[in-house]
Amino acid sequence: MYQACSHINNIHQVTPSGDGCEECLQMGDTWVHLRLCEICGHVGCCDNSKNRHATKHYHATGHPIIKSFEPGEDWGWCYVDEIYIENLPVNMGDYHR
Q: I want to staple 69 with a disulfide (CB 3.0 to 4.6 A). Which of 20, 34, 85, 91 is the partner?
């Protein structure tokens, strides 16, 4: 299914920037779920979180693909193509609550 995304070849094996949303941790705020940028490793909060840092990261950088950074989840999303990717082959996530 991810072949339909024209940006899938841009993903890299990345090192997550932390165990939580970078910006929320700096602000002392909370998040709902975490997302991992598959281009640089930025960890940001999801769109259900009030700060939406993962999407803000996309708008600031243009990095198109994120992956769920929740335990047991390996789905992704391409912001540019607006495509849900059922299973991304890299960055299974090392996050543990």
A: 34
